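[RESIDUES AND BACKBONE]
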Amino acid sequence: MTLAAVHHPDYSFDLPANHPFPMAKFRVLRRQLAAFDHRIRWHQPGMANRSALESVHTGAYLDALLAGELDHAAQRRSGFPWSQALIRRIRLETGGTLLAARLALAEGIALNAAGGTHHAHADYASGYCLLNDLAVTAKILLSERRVRRVLIIDLDVHQGDGTVRLLADEPDAVTLSIHAARNFPARKAAGDEDIELESGLTDAAYLEVLSSRLPPVIDRVQPDLVIYDAGVDVHTADRLGHLDLTDDGLYRRDRYVIDTVRARGIPLAGVIGGGYDRDLEALCRRHGQLFVAALDAVGK
């Protein structure tokens, strides 16, 4: 069996060499995943339109963001200097997650080789997140009545505070976040299901928490779609994480989530989430664990 996946060459664009965000990782990940091209059917997204973005973001924020009129403080909070290439990238990324979700509903599972911008809020950017692809996707599919309930499983090392707040008034979109307690953001949002982890947690302890907490949430929510943020900043070598998972732990985490969701007949759309190692080859091998786990799951 083959796996549906989404990528666009413009997920990456050039940033200054000293910029802390590893923008080239999307290009490197796609190159590494070429080894699986015989088993992956690649789809290219279009840019998310203004109407889709307005499902969660304010018109005033979008006006300023799209026109390049964010002030210096707002750009600094976003983590990026404004450019047309940046706007194209974030709209493609958001369109990519929405496309992956549509593919998942049709085929059972699909992945976006980007996405997980869970710190973007209704009217401001934060933590390298300018548009919230997770919340946009949930709101659009609910408004189209493509799904009755959506569960967002966020296993990035940071809580997705933007996603939580954007969906706080949407009872049919439920968030589950398992994240490091002592990490960004300093002020956590009050999500539907929040599980805070102590720093330094290793594979076995992490997977024990996951296996005890995930199934009951899925069975209670009974979603028609799961959106899975598979951030790899939980890895022991990540610059911005405080957990100690290994490459094998990442694979086992991703495989457990995929198998647990698929065993219940629920479609799953996955995004790669955060990861900040300066060693791009190593970082992208970690992101690639999501794709390996998905390929193993569909091929079994």
